[in-house]
Specification:
The protein has 342 residues and is α/β, with parallel strands linked by helices. The protein has 15 helices and ten strands.
Length: 342
């Protein structure tokens, strides 16, 4: 039985505006081939990247993607700053603006995971047979998040407020997603923030219960971003081609869910090749990651996080500019180029 997932892809059929000549020009493959080093944490929101690789969209444009796996996104910032990594994915965090204040040159360039109803691929979870049943039970308890300064923490704070609590009423520990379930089992934490496909895997094996899905904590959230290093952005021919291929991957990903869940078989094959989970039935039940059809970031949600970070002095200077570390030019180019081809 197929379960309906409300897919919003009407924008793909919208009337297309005339594109600038640069975007209309045919993109020939780079010669020689340019290797692009991309950081990943092997999560559901990497789907657009994985699809673009397997469909050959990067190769068509003379790009060879070298995936570099990290335990968490925070550890990508240093290699992005040095240019060792060309691109990477990570949460919306105070670190983005702090890096900008230090002139590191990393920029947020595209959506790499957002949540809304039907596309809420993150959840706050607890041990299934544990004592934590609802929000109020977390008072005085340890919870985990991948960072002490990201937008997810903002969402958790909003959710705690619904039952009269705040982050001041809990102890937040930093754990990578693979560490969350073991910590729940051994009692190190009472609840943890967890992403797909680990949520579905551990629901299926009876280990966890969901306290709140991301869209129940915050209706719409820009959870993850695609970052480009300063060095890669300077190589505009490669960076533009990368974004065109990535957006094509996103659109195929959305098409895989066009009839709801489970997604198309070909997409499950792609994900099984790239992530740790190798059980097809898990991917049939996974809550998909939200991705904008053109890779656009939800700037309103990001600004809300930015204001929350500043209010809590998680950003080093009150003079930090919201727009400083954000570059929308690559998704704009990709949209113009792909629309011009239609």
């Amino acid at each position: 039985m197929r379960v309906c997932v409300c897919v919003v892809v009407a924008g793909l059929a919208a009337a297309f505006a005339a594109a600038p000549a640069a975007a209309q020009a045919r993109l020939t493959p780079l010669d020689p081939v340019r290797t692009v080093h991309v950081g990943t944490v092997n999560q559901a929101s990497d789907a657009g990247l994985y699809v673009a690789i397997e469909k050959g969209y990067f190769a068509e444009l003379g790009l060879k993607v070298d995936l570099v796996t990290f335990t968490n996104a925070a550890t990508m910032i240093a290699p992005l700053g040095s240019g060792e990594l060309d691109a990477g994915g990570g949460a919306v965090s105070a670190g983005l603006w702090n890096a900008d204040l230090r002139k590191i040159g990393v920029r947020a360039v595209a959506d790499k995971g957002s949540t809304r109803s039907g596309w809420s691929y993150f959840s706050l979870v607890a041990k299934k047979d544990g004592q934590i049943q609802r929000c109020e039970d977390l008072k005085g308890k340890n919870i985990s998040n991948a960072s002490l300064s990201n937008g997810v923490l903002h969402a958790i704070d909003l959710w705690l407020a619904k039952c009269g609590l705040s982050l001041a009423d809990v102890e937040v520990k930093t754990l990578g997603y693979p560490e969350v379930v073991p910590a729940l089992i051994n009692g190190g934490i009472a609840a943890g923030h967890l992403g797909e496909p680990l949520v579905s895997t551990n629901l299926q094996n009876g280990t966890i219960r969901v306290l709140a899905r991301q869209d129940e904590m915050r209706a719409v959230d820009q959870v993850a971003l695609l970052y480009f290093s300063e060095k890669f952005r300077a190589d505009r021919e490669a960076a533009r081609r990368f974004m065109v291929a990535y957006v094509r991957g996103i659109q195929d990903y959305l098409a895989a869910y066009a009839k709801g869940a489970p997604p198309a078989d070909w997409f499950i094959d792609v994900m099984m090749k790239h992530v740790r989970v190798k059980d097809r039935s898990v991917f049939a039940s996974v809550t998909p990651a939200g991705l904008d059809a053109w890779g656009r970031m939800d700037l309103a949600a990001m600004r809300s996080d930015f204001d929350w970070f500043k209010a809590r002095r998680l950003i080093a200077s009150q003079d930090a500019s919201f727009e400083g570390p954000i570059d929308t030019s690559f998704v704009e180019f990709a949209q113009q180029h792909l629309q011009a081809k239609r």
